[in-house]
Amino acid sequence: MKIILTILTCLLLINTGANDNNNFKAEFNNALKKNADISELAQGEAAVINIWATWCGPCIREIPEMNELVQEYSNKNVRFLAFSNEPMSTYKSFLKKRPDFKFDYELSFGDARSISLLKALDKQRGGTAIPLHILINKDGEVEEVFIGASPANIQKIKTFLDKQASAE
């Protein structure tokens, strides 16, 4: 229950456009501590967080482009994290059919944290809000949140990553 409240608080800050979003990284790390499948974000580490599902066509189509970004920025102190409310077994079955759509970054499946994120976003936006991207800068602030898979959104992520890399 505490994780759900933490995530909902974080989403409220993000989605209301609150300027005081610099606590997101701390709150997110607090939620990550509760579940060991993904480690906390480090001080000075930027993050690209993706919420997706195997049934989401746009989510799947962007995997190769996202993997290219993972490779391009592999030594730039950036973490790529993907959350799905599906069990890992669903992803493994998907990979048997589509092995070319394997993620090159950290994954979390079926945990309360991602399920809570998805449900809160569904409620606020009136639909299934994926793929969802949350960009966290090296200061721990939410820089941008956007929905959808498109070349323009991949470019937004690339611009964000270039900005973070130049801040080193």
UniProtKB/TrEMBL annotation:
<dbReference type="GO" id="GO:0016853">
    <property type="term" value="F:isomerase activity"/>
</dbReference>
<feature type="signal peptide">
    <location>
        <begin position="1"/>
        <end position="20"/>
    </location>
</feature>
<dbReference type="InterPro" id="IPR036249">
    <property type="entry name" value="Thioredoxin-like_sf"/>
</dbReference>
<keyword id="KW-0413">Isomerase</keyword>
<dbReference type="InterPro" id="IPR050553">
    <property type="entry name" value="Thioredoxin_ResA/DsbE_sf"/>
</dbReference>
<feature type="domain" description="Thioredoxin">
    <location>
        <begin position="12"/>
        <end position="166"/>
    </location>
</feature>
<dbReference type="InterPro" id="IPR013766">
    <property type="entry name" value="Thioredoxin_domain"/>
</dbReference>
<protein>
    <submittedName>
        <fullName>Thiol-disulfide isomerase or thioredoxin</fullName>
    </submittedName>
</protein>
<dbReference type="GO" id="GO:0016491">
    <property type="term" value="F:oxidoreductase activity"/>
</dbReference>
<dbReference type="InterPro" id="IPR013740">
    <property type="entry name" value="Redoxin"/>
</dbReference>
<dbReference type="Pfam" id="PF08534">
    <property type="entry name" value="Redoxin"/>
</dbReference>
<keyword id="KW-0732">Signal</keyword>
